[in-house]
Amino acid sequence: MTQDANIKPTTPISKVWVIPILALLVGGWMVYYQWKNQGPLITINMQSASGIEVNKTPIKVRDLDIGQVKRIELNPDLNGVTVTARIDNNAAHLLNENTQFWVVAPRISFSEVSGLNTLLSGSFIAMTAESGNQEVLQFTALERPPVTPPGTPGLHVKLTSQNDELTYKPGDTLIYKGFKVGEFEEVNFNVDEGVIEYRAFIHDPYHKLINANTRFWNVSGVKLQLASTGLTIQTGSLETLLANGVTFGNPQGVSKGAAIDNDAEFVIYNDYDAAADERFKYAAQYILLIEESVRGLTVGAPVEYRGLQIGKVEAINYASIEIGSLLDDDYPIPVLINLYPGKVRLEDSETGLKFLRERLARWIGKDLRATLRMGNVLTGGLYVDLQHVDDPEIAAIQTVNGFDIIPTVSNEFTQLTQKADAILDKINALPLEDLITQIGDVVQTLEAAAESVNQTSDNFDATLASFDTETLNAQIQQSLQAFEGLLKHYSQGGLSKAEIADTMNALQDTLRAIQPLLRQLNTTPNGLIFSDNADVDIQPKARETNP
Q1: What is the pLDDT of residues 318-367, one digit of tens each?
Q2: Among 175, 96, 188, residue whose Cα is nearest residue 137
Q3: Angular region, 177: left φ>0, alpha ψ -120 to 50, beta rest
Q4: Do residues 68 and 86 lie in contact, with contact meaning Cβ atoms separated by under 8 Å?
Q5: Rounded percentage of the chain residues whose pLDDT exceeds 70
Q6: Which residues does UniProt assign to the signal peptide (predicted)?
Q7: What are the structural domain ranges in the chain?
Q8: How many separate helices (H) and strands (E) can be counted in the chain?
Q9: Which of 59, 90, 244, 459 has a CA positioned 20 to 30 A from the CA of residue 300?
C-alpha cells in the first residue's frame, strides 16, 4: 500500500532575520534620535590653531562642556584658520549676535595672570552665555579673553586720550583713591579721526561715582616734573608703577553732575591740573610779545596776578600770529595765554568773560603789564606775572589776528643783566693802559726799594761781623765781677741797714726845719736881704717941739 506525502509550504521569511531587523530598527532609531537631538555645527575664525586639537578640545561655558572641536581648516587667503565645532542641543539657544569665543591658555603679563589651570588639562575654547535675538552660527574669536566676565554688574564707559604718546592696553587698571575699581577692556585706533578709543568697565558699586562732571586723568608710572613751581612727583598705586593706569573724580570746586548711561564718553587728561582746568568752559585769550629769551617757559606754565593763578600759557611762539621771522632783529616771540573768569571768582559764563575783558582793557590802558619771572631757581622755570607797574608808558589797546596784546616789561634777570652790561661798559671805558703803565712803574720802584733793603741788610750783617765779640764778652764779665764785689762789700763791711735808716731820718728832720724858710722865699723872694718888719708894731708919735 502506498502512502501519500503531506507537503507544506515553507515560510518566506526566516525567523532568523528577526534579530537583525530589530537591531536595524533600534540602530536607525538611535541615529534618528541623535540626529534629531544633536546641536548645530558652528564655525569660528581664529588667528591660529595653537593648542586646539580635533575631537579633543572642548568648548565650555562657565567651565561646563557644551561642545567639541570637529574640524580645523586653513583659510584660503592664509589669514587664519576656521574651526568647526559641534554644540550640544541644550546650549544651542546661546548662539546669538552677542556670543563671543576665545581660547583659554596660560597668560602671564604685568596686568594679569590667567589660564594656569590649562597647563595640565590643555587649552580650551570658552564661550559667553548672553541672551540675544538672532541665531548666529559663524563667529570670529577674540584675540584675548575679555577682561570683565559676562554678567558682571557695573558700568561701561568709552574713553579717548589727549596724550598720543601713551597707549593703554586691555587689562590696565582704573583706580579710585588707591583702590582698583575697573579695567580697560578694548582699544581701537580710529583712522578717520586719528584718535585712540578705549572701552573700560567700572565694577559695582564704584560705578555710582561716575557722573556727567567726572574727569579722568593719567596716573601711569612715576611722573617727575620740573616746572616753575619746583619739583613735582606724582604716582598712583603699585599696579600703576608697573603698568599704565587711570583715575577719576570730580575736581575741587566741581559739583556732582547728572547720572550717565552705559557707554558714556569721557576724555583722559594728562594730569589732574589739566582735568581741573577743563571745568572752565570760558577763557579770555591774550597775546604777549616777548622780546627776551623764553627759555624755561613751558606750555601749561601758570599765569599769576598778585601771586594767585588765574590762567595758563596755552602756546609759545604761536604759529597763527604772523609778525615776521625769528631771524628778524626786532622779532618778538608771541606767547598765547588763557585767563579764566572762573579763577578770578567771576561767573564761568559769557557775562563773566565780558566783565574780565572790560576790566583788563581798562587796566592795560593804565598800568597793567606782563613779565616773565623765575618760579624756581633750581629748575629755571618761568611763569607769567601780571602786575601794576609805576610810571608806565601809556599803551593803547592793540590787537593782532583778533587777539588783544598785553604790553610786557623786562623781568628782574634781564634788568640785572642790563645793569651788569652797564658796569662792564664803565670798566671798558677806564684808561686801563695808563693804569697798567703806572702799576708797572710802581712795581719797578718797589723792586728798587727791595734791592736797597737787601743792601742795608748786607751792610748790617757786615757791621755785626766786624764787632770783636771776645773783647765785648770780657768787658761784660769785668762789669759783673765789679758789681758782685760791691754787693759783697755791702753785705760784709759797708753801711748797715740801720745806719742807712738813721741817715734818712736825719735828712727828713733837716727838710722839715727849712720848710718855713722855703715858704718865705716862695712868698717874698727878697726876704733874706730886706727885713719885712712884720713883728714891729709902729706907734704914731707927736712931733717934738723945741723948748
Answers
A1: 887 777 777 777 788 899 999 999 888 888 889 999 999 999 989 988 88
A2: 96
A3: left
A4: yes
A5: 71
A6: none
A7: 37-142, 154-278, 284-419, 464-523
A8: 10, 26
A9: 244
What DSSP state is assigned to residue 15?
Answer: G
Average pLDDT score over residue span 23-27: 83
530 pLDDT higher than 70:
no
How far apart, in whole angstroms, are the C-alpha atoms of residue 123 and residue 146?
16
Q: In this structure, how many other beta carbons lie within 10 angstroms of the beta carbon of residue 207?
A: 18
Query: Between helices 515-523 and 497-513, what is the axis angle to 10°?
Result: 40
CA gap 298, 122 in Å, rounded? 55
Report the DSSP pairing between strands 399-400 and 215-218: unpaired
The C-alpha atoms of residue 508 and residue 501 are separated, in whole angstroms, by 11
385: which 3 cell numbers? 606775572
β-sheet with 308-316: strand ranges across? 368-374, 382-388, 302-305, 308-316, 333-339, 284-290, 403-405, 399-400
Concatenated DSSP letters for 75-128?
-TTSS-EEEEEEE-GGGGGG-BTT--EEEE--EE-SS-EE-TTHHHH--EEEE-
Cis peptide before 547 (omega within 30 of 0): no
With cell 662792564, the residue in question is 424
Q: Report the pLDDT value the prediction gives residue 69, as an integer from 0 to 100.
A: 93
DSSP 346: S
Tell me if 149 sits within 8 A of 256, measured CB to CB: no
* Helix spans in 104-194 (H): 118-121
**Residue of 54, 127, 52, 50 lying closest to 87 (CA atoms):** 127
| Count of CB atoms situated within 10 Å of the CB of 192 | 5
Residue with cell 541665531: 135
Pairing of strands 399-400, 308-316: unpaired
What DSSP element (H or E) covers 258?
A: none
Q: Nearest to residue 184, comparing CAs of 292, 112, 104?
A: 112
User: Measured at the alpha carbon of residue 390, what is the angle toward residues 386 and 391, in degrees to the nearest 5?
Assistant: 120
Q: Are 69 and 52 in contact (CB under 8 A)?
A: yes
Structure pTM?
Answer: 0.51
DSSP secondary structure, 472-512, as one string: HHHHHHHHHHHHHHHHHHHHHTS--HHHHHHHHHHHHHHHH
